[in-house]
Specification:
elongated; OB fold (Dihydrolipoamide Acetyltransferase, E2P); 32% strand; 158 residues; 5-stranded antiparallel beta sheet; alpha+beta; 5 strands
Length: 158
């Protein structure tokens, strides 16, 4: 009897620990993953700009989340370069809605003068009609949890 009680308590403590700390670990992982992009955006303030164009738009769905990706190209001193910009969305249809209007749109690209292959497309540099902002991990998680509890709160558009 005592043996079963100890196993039960161990399982309960483990379950509570996972519920309490697992989201924090996920948040830290996503923050650490975003550090290179944050640093590049800050460092790129002094980088020159080039006129670029969105060449490709894709959406990749992984489980409950979708990753929308813009492939862009730009020319520096007669050489064509390319890069990618991606955002996370909570729903595949929302991701497609975000990228579908951006195909062949002109974008401002910042590139590193000593290495033009290093580039960044920053929202602050874009015209007002350039709207490519994902809803991020926490909002995605909240919508999925809410949708699972309350039913389909965010229906897909046809």
């Amino acid at each position: 009897m005592l043996h079963h009680l100890l196993h039960y308590l161990r399982d309960q403590i483990l379950r509570e620990w996972l519920i309490a700390f697992f989201p924090g670990f996920i948040a830290i992982w996503f923050f650490l993953k975003s550090i290179p992009a944050i640093l590049r955006a800050r460092v790129s303030n002094d980088w020159p700009t080039a006129r670029g164009r969105v060449e490709t738009v894709t959406v990749k769905t992984m489980g409950d989340r979708s990753l929308a990706e813009l492939g862009y190209s730009y020319v520096v001193e007669g050489t064509r370069y390319s890069g990618y910009l991606s955002q996370q969305f909570s729903d595949e249809q929302i991701a497609w809605d975000a990228v579908s209007s951006l195909k062949v749109q002109i974008v401002v690209v910042r590139y590193k003068l000593s290495d033009p292959e290093a580039s960044v497309v920053r929202a602050a540099d874009q015209p007002p009609d350039f709207n490519f902002k994902g809803d991020g991990f926490w909002i995605s998680l909240w919508r999925r949890l809410r949708g699972g509890i309350l039913g389909s709160a965010y229906p897909r558009r046809l």
